[in-house]
Amino acid sequence: MDFPRYPWSSPAALSRYVLPTLVGAFALTACSDSTAGPASPDVPAPRVAEVASAQRKLHVRADNPTVLAGDSTPLRANAAAQGNRRAADVTWRTLDGGNLVQGVVDSETVTMFTAPEAGSYRLVGASPSLGATDTMVVTMASASVTSTITSLVMRPERATILPNDTLRFVVWGKTSTGDSVPAPVKLYPDRGYVRGLDYYCPIEGTFRVRAELNGVETESYVTVSKSAGTSSGSATSGSIVRLVMSPTRDTIPPGDTLTFQVHGVTSTGSSVPVSATLVADRGYVRDLDWIMPVEGTVRIRAVQSGGTLADTAWITVKSGAAPSTDDGASGGSGSTDDGSVEAPSDPSNISTPAPSGEVAEMPRTYLDTRYVAPTGRTINVAAGGDLQAAINNAARGDVIQLAAGARFVGNFYLPAKAGSGWITIRTATTLPAEGTRVTPSTAASFAKLVTPNSMPALYTRTSASASYYRIMGIELSSSASMTYAVVNLGDYSHSAGSVSDYPQYIVLDRTYIHGTSSMNLQRCVALNSRSSAVIDSWISDCHYRLLDSQAIGAWDGPGPYKIVNNHLEGASENVMFGGGDPRFSGVVPSDIEIRHNHFYKPLSWKGVGWAIKNLFELKNARRVLVEGNIFENNWAEAQTGFAVVMKTVNQGGGCSWCITADVTWRYNRIINSPGGFNLMGIQNPNGGGGTPARRIVVEHTTFEKVGLLSQSGTQRIFQILGGVTYLTIAHNTAMGESHIILFDGLPTSPPNFIIRDNLFNRGKWGVFGSGVGEGSVALSRFSPGGVFADNAIITAPASLYPTGTYVPSSTSVAGLLSFSSGSFLLSSGSTLFQAASDGTMVGADVAKLTSMTSGVR
Questions:
Q1: Distance between terminal CA atoms of the chain?
Q2: What does the alpha-carbon distance between residue 318 and residue 302 come to, in Å, rounded to a whole number?
Q3: Residue 599 contacts residue 665 (beta carbons within 8 Å)
Q4: What string of DSSP letters covers 337-369?
Q5: Nearest to 190 by CA among 14, 33, 64
Q6: Cβ(367)–Cβ(533) under 8 Å?
Q7: Is the Cβ–Cβ distance between 810 and 773 less than 8 Å?
């Protein structure tokens, strides 16, 4: 029978860890079962179930992440290699004060942390041999706060473990006011051993583990079974009947990071590891971590990867809440190039820091678009009724309900309203569930708003009080041969005295907005209001001959904007921010969330005269997150064929403040386009200045049928022109046949480029610099002082590229065993599987990317 190498303290004998001068001999109490073995066994160490951290090179944790101020807790460090963990030698330092001392626990010398004052302390472990650092948080709890705890919440990371496997608990306290606070508890098992918040037992059975603090108790039951499955093993999806997700806290402050554990439960009740993806209504997800920078109560779902099972949790984010203390929630943030460590609660940690420490900033504000139940009247409008009169007479909190299938022809506007609450305009029919995208077929019964002329079917009157409108389950279109915009939100009458007069809080929810197959429609939605969203909608046939056209175009509003879970068809640019000078100085569309959309151009549009350009373009935008989208079908017509264009453009010469900056592009698929990204610092067609594009991150993106010689147009995965700075290209996969990167134009010195951990096919030209050639010479000329590391370039001549570049001779040698059938999945046996600079696979994380784009297409 296996026993752990290091004996752990029995809770009955060891009440708290102490400093070296107070350390004595402590007795150990074995499981009471007669087969449990001796009290101080000396056999291999237990396995540790750390699913969320499996790909980190270094993992640090405290035995007790929460202790009373003045107490101490041992610190541990493990190195990860091919799914296994071993103890690692590290050098510790604290970023926020406190003391690191050497102590003895169970005859083992360990580093311990203590601090006399209550608060949260960041600790860093650094391993020179691994070239890695990891960060965690230890909370010193205040005795006055812990005395207010009236109940405890206890969460195991799994419900069933193998004998000698290790189980981590997370425990926090609840006060009489419902606040979630750190709780420096002690664990007491009926059988087995604990070390801090870790538990193991060498015998089979179901055992109770109690958590206690100041007379307040709670308990959890753990099943120890040889049929439980190992921590690193897997179970067939058919044996799993439900998912269970456990957060490390249920209340956190804005900007903190919360970690979830997710496990599957089989039909026999066993707890098994399971691969799952988090999906949050708001905030941002990284693996099993979730970050929310603003207050609110948010639904988070764990969805089984490749399956249908799910579980749901509701988390409250509120100012004043205690920060998360679980080391798994804050670890892995790494260190910046200047030697400092990024704060665990900083959402920008998701992106890769540039050499100077400049990081693409995430949106500061995220719109809550959950449906708010009406509190006022229901105003029914029958077919043939006066819709504008109903809108004029409605008060905030009312619902205007249109007869199903009714057609209302005209140019309807949203006037200013006093009071509180939302005005909802909807069809009197059963709508698809909230969060479900409509389609033309599911919108068949919707009421229809139709413009007969070039004016919008729906628009806003210029007033800050023309706000809090939700358009839900409505079809909007045009019967004219030309319309400028079907929906126009913003300063339509050009009567605002300042941008604060613009309408705000307008949500287009489950709408069907479209032109016809032959009409000239410049844009389906002009999004120039403030704090507005387009969600769960279908927007199509947005095209124009000779002029640019978009599904959604925005240039005159400050944001924030939310564009989530839509089908978007636009001829020139499916979505574009910028392209016109804002009316008021300083306006930059900002804090833009673009997730889970299908950007699509029908192939039937080829060669019929629409002005085809690209799928997504930024000319004036700041703090943009583009995540989990599919960009499909683009070709050379009115432009040369790049799917994505980003640059600063002072379009009319009057926008000297224009800027494109802080763009985080991740977990997206680009499909069927001759070119990928065209990036440029600044373009001024009419003069007038501006700030060159900067702080752009492109990561975990696959380029599928992009850059092929059979495609007409510019066959380049990336084209990087002069002026753009702080650009990171990391963990992308592309199998183009011409250029990987073409550098051209004079670079800013230094441009601060990071190009790392990508998987590319060399094609004809590889990484090429205009006028100088391929490989290192191009990088020296156009990316001086930059980073080019741990990239794999299939069939590239090794002599042309920097040392450390992987040069597989074929896709099969690289590990793309199913590439011929269109798969970009990298085999776990590939030499590239753990060869990236962060210890993960080279190229995009295709499994996670597939999960995040599931249901988009």
A1: 52
A2: 22
A3: no
A4: TTS-B--TT-GGGGSPPPTTS--PPPPS-----
A5: 33
A6: yes
A7: no
Question: What is the C-alpha to C-alpha distance for residues 360 and 715, in angstroms, rounded to an integer?
Answer: 28
HSE toward the beta carbon, residue 545, CA cutoff 13 A: 9
- Per the CB < 8 A criterion, the answer to whether 783 and 747 are in contact is yes
Give residue 838's pLDDT. Answer: 87
Tens of pLDDT, residue by residue over 328-374, are: 333 333 332 222 222 222 222 223 333 334 678 999 889 999 998 89
Task: Express the helix, strand and coil content of the chain in percent, nearest 5 each.
Answer: 5, 45, 50
Closest CA to 7 of 44, 48, 41, 36: 41
What are φ and ψ of residue 659, in 5° steps? -160, 145
| Bond preceding residue 560 cis, omega within 30 of 0 | yes
* CB atoms inside a 10 Å sphere around CB 803: 7
Residue 588 pLDDT: 96
- Torsional sign, CA 489, 494, 495, 499: positive
Q: Which secondary-structure segment (H or E) carries 169?
A: strand 167-175
Cis peptide before 46 (omega within 30 of 0): no
Residue 404 parent element (H or E): none
**In a 10 Å sphere around its CB, with 0-12 CB exposed, 13-18 middle and 19+ buried, how is residue 35 labelled?**
exposed
Q: What span, in angstroms and rounded, lies between the C-alpha atoms of 473 and 510?
A: 5
Tokens of residue 606, six digits: 């080829």
Per-residue pLDDT of 446-466, as tens digits, reads 999 999 999 999 999 888 889
Lowest model confidence (mean pLDDT) among 132-141, 347-356, 375-384: 347-356
- Using only C-alpha atoms, the chain has a radius of gyration, in whole angstroms, of 29
DSSP labels, 458-497: EEE-S-TTS--EEEESEEEEE-SSEEEEEEEES-TTS--S
> How far is residue 627 CA from its own chain's centroid?
7
Least confident among 136-145, 322-331, 783-792 = 322-331
Measured CA to CA, the distance from residue 635 to residue 643 in angstroms comes to 8
Query: Amino acid identity of 238?
Result: G
CB within 8 A of 187, min separation 6: which ones? 11, 169, 194, 196, 197, 199, 209, 210, 211
Q: How far apart are CA 695 and CA 477, in angstroms?
A: 38
User: What is the CB-side half-sphere exposure of residue 213 using CA atoms within 13 A?
Assistant: 28
Asked if residue 447 lies in contact with residue 427, where contact means CB atoms within 8 angstroms, the answer is: yes
**Distance between CA 836 and CA 805 in Å, rounded?**
11
- In whole angstroms, what is the distance from residue 850 CA to residue 838 CA? 21
Q: Exposed, middle or buried, 833 (CB in 10 Å: 0-12/13-18/19+)?
A: middle
Structure tokens that stand for 757 in this block: 């951990």
- The lowest-confidence range among 104-108, 645-649, 726-730, 788-792 is 104-108
**Is 380:404 a contact under the CB 8 Å cutoff?**
no
Q: Reply yes or no on whether the pLDDT at 433 is more than 80.
A: yes
561 to 217, 364, 513, 557: CA distances (angstroms):
46, 11, 18, 9
Q: Is residue 351 within 8 Å of 728, Cβ to Cβ?
A: yes
> Helix or strand or coil: residue 317?
strand
Contact 262/158 with Cβ under 8 angstroms? no
β-bridge partners, 600: 632
| Token pair belonging to 47 | 């396995």
The closest alpha carbon to 588, from 363, 329, 432, belongs to: 363
- Strands of 128-253, DSSP E: 132-141, 149-156, 160-161, 167-175, 180-182, 186-189, 193-195, 198-200, 205-213, 216-224, 240-247, 251-252
635, 711 in Cβ contact below 8 A?
yes
